[in-house]
Design a protein that fits this description.
Layout (H helix, E strand, L loop, with lengths): L1 E6 L7 H13 L3 E5 H10 L9 E3 L8 E6 L1 H11 L6 E5 L14 H9 L4 E11 L3 H4 L3 E2 L2 E5 L7 E7 L2 E8 L1 E5 L7 H4 L11 E7 L9 E4 L4 E6 L4 E6 L2 E6 L3 E15 L5 H9 L7
Parallel strand pairs: 1-2, 1-4, 2-3, 4-5
Antiparallel strand pairs: 6-7, 6-17, 8-11, 8-15, 9-10, 9-14, 11-12, 12-13, 14-17, 15-16
EC number: 2.7.1.23
Keywords: ATP-binding, Cytoplasm, Kinase, NAD, NADP, Nucleotide-binding, Transferase
Protein name: NAD kinase
């Protein structure tokens, strides 16, 4: 098998996990390609000795049987944006903190990769959002696995977000922002501002306001084959659009259209992985922390 590897370039203390990963892959005789930024981090800053046979790649110019993301959910999102429509499954090894996407612990690396070689794993397909607008900067990478957020740009007054579903007016949100999230993203930014937790396999989209002026503005869940249109008014005549955390300033006259992307992201999961178990563990449900 051939693996393409993305990694976190900010956690020097986690370098031992990378060494262990390469050791396991070499033992299996795997083909290894490494994102150039991660390779430089490992060799120039951490001074690791990597197998001489590794290949390097830039951007999304790679081919592999499987992608490995070594880091947290942020690293996983970066890997997913590079994978795009390539249809390559992604295995997330969590060396970060709270991991919903990257949920294989470093202690489970060897067992999990043995299972991969034994074809003993499952693939979960996760829906992706697509943004359409006339802003060139935003259209460079208009796809989001987690969420697309519209936010006020500075500390000025809240913005007005005129929202329509399939062309029919929904409401105008007077708020600091609005988050449009996939089920995968429902446990990320959306959850932190009061959005609902949605099971990954449900074909839905959550729309959650950020600090709305009116308390009766509540999150709403819609079908993921519907189209959302946003027109934003701001006193500063611009606002921010964040696509899985990648933010760009946008002019007030820019209309945003959000719909389901024509592809899915495939996530590698171990057999026995249950979403509700992850929720209990990550959210500490039922834990007495007194």
């Amino acid at each position: 098998m051939k693996f393409a590897i993305f990694g976190n370039t900010y956690q020097a203390k986690k370098s031992s996990y990378a060494e262990r990963l390469f050791s396991i892959l070499t033992h299996h005789g795997a083909g290894i390609s490494i994102c150039r930024e991660f390779y430089r981090f490992l060799t120039e800053e951490l001074h690791l000795q990597l197998p001489a046979s590794v290949e390097l790649f830039d951007g999304d110019r790679f081919e592999a049987d499987m992608v490995i993301s070594l880091g947290g959910d942020g690293t996983f999102l970066q890997a997913a944006s590079r994978v795009g429509a390539k249809n390559i499954p992604i295995l997330g090894i969590n060396t970060g903190r709270l991991g919903f996407l990257a949920d294989v612990s470093p202690d489970e690396m060897e067992t999990t990769l043995n299972e991969v070689y034994d074809r003993h794993y499952k693939i979960e397909e996760r829906s992706v959002l697509q943004l359409t607008c006339n802003d060139r900067n935003l259209m460079r990478c208009p796809y989001a696995l987690n969420e697309i957020a519209v936010l006020k740009r500075d500390s000025s007054s809240m913005i007005s977000i005129h929202t329509a579903i399939n062309g029919a007016p929904l409401t105008t949100y007077q708020a600091d922002g609005l988050i449009v999230a996939t089920p995968t993203g429902s446990t990320a930014y959306s959850l932190s501002v009061g959005g609902p937790i949605i099971v990954p396999h449900s074909k839905t989209i959550a729309i959650t306001p950020v600090a709305p002026h009116s308390l009766n503005m509540r999150p709403i869940v819609i079908c993921d084959d519907w189209t959302i249109t946003l027109d934003v008014e701001s006193r500063s005549h611009n606002f921010l659009v964040a696509i899985d955390g990648r933010s760009e300033s946008c002019r007030e006259t820019t209309r945003l259209t959000i719909s389901r992307a024509p592809y899915t992201i495939k996530v590698v999961k171990r057999f026995g992985h249950i979403f509700f178990n992850t929720l209990r563990n990550k959210m500490m449900w039922g834990a007495d922390i007194r």
